[in-house]
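This entry is listed below:
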Amino acid sequence: MKISKVMLISPPMTLLNGLFKNCTVPLGIAYLGAVLEGEGYEVKLLDAVVEDINHEEPVDREHIRYGLSFEEIENRIREFSPDVVGITCLFSLQYRNVLLLTKLVKGVDKKIITVAGGEHPSALPAACMQDKNTDFIVIGEGEHSFLHLLKEMQGGKNFFKIDGLAFRKNGKTVVNPKTKFIENLDALPFPARHLLPMQKYFSISLPQSLTYQDKRHACLTTSRGCSGKCVFCATTKFWGNRFRSRSPENVLQEIQQLVEDYGVKELHFIDDNLTLDKERAMKIFQGMIDRKFNLKWCVPQGLAIWTLDEELIKKMQESGCYLVDLGVESGNQDVLWKIIKKPINLKRVKGLVKTFKKHGMLVKVCFVIGLPGETKEQIKQTFDFADKLDLDGVSIAIATPLPGTELFRICKEKKLFRRGFDENAIEYYVGNIETDEFKPEELQAMLSHYMLKYNLGLLLKHPLRFFKRFSKLLVGHPGTLTKYIFFLLKRRSKVIWKK
């Protein structure tokens, strides 16, 4: 079988109506596309969201799907006529869109090979292989496994020797576990952004953080993997439990390319652990200064608090950092250490926030509530802790039991999943866990009540801060915040949280 044309698709997105849309370069398929292109394959990247972000259709009473219509995606597939179609699935809620796409692909031509990848299929490969329209699943980090798969399709077809692959043999599913990870990340080519409509991303400007200072912003990642053991995190399942990083020089070369080829003015580092190796981080930031990039940058994925000190913070500011997200996770020390298992000392947090503010940076903090073993009183302590910090923004998520995480195992073992829980449609803004202490609806109401109070307080007490953070969003997408406020009001009204 001769394979020459590969199409990689990032599907339309499903979300609760009222939440913020997001539109960023899908780095997963961009990296994979660059690797395949380097091996001589003709590659087509299709990001359904950026191609038509204004197209919306209802999924059910609460959800919408946005992005290119399936009819138009079918037209693009027919036009390119690929031999293989790869489909990425970052979140469980998007998996139904993947199923619709694999069915669509086979409807175009049954001979087209379909390959699914991303966090959700990687966590549940055997279950996802039950879809008759999915031929293969690449598990975890995919650049080497996908390339190996294409070569075996055209050669010996010995799929048993491919690391991190799910396939069928005589009608039965076989899962080769992921055991090998790319040691030398510098050996990877830079993401194939030239295969994506970069100008559209700049025009839309809906980054993950919802905050930016220049529309010509781009996301990049400088490392993979994490040695942490956070109960809710799926990173180690996908990227491995060991921190691997690119060299400072390699990172600076990519930044140079972004500046020269795309006119980028702002960077969004989406690492899980940008500052874990302080010496490496300092070299990257100093290199940005020495090369006079004059870029603004932020860290929407969060920073590991235990890695930070004033020397590093000062260098961040000098190199252009204007906003940091700090993953504090809880305002209760016992929850942090005994439930989440994160090595954060809350006594340090207030001082770190002050240090960032002293150096002129915006500070946002991320929390998680609704974990098994957590009490309502401890959740209130998290809200109180957030209120006492001098912040420019707060992000609070309801604990989400993602497949492959320790939290998922605990919930399954103790039968804590809410009624109707579907592991193929897990949402981040919905209570998926029910304990003797709280019900999902209570968590949703508690969170909506607090977020309304917090954001209104920020607007009234610190209007300049509020508009400094959201001014670009308000101008570019004026109806977004209004929809979000109505979303919170609707959630809050469903259950009255009695203190």
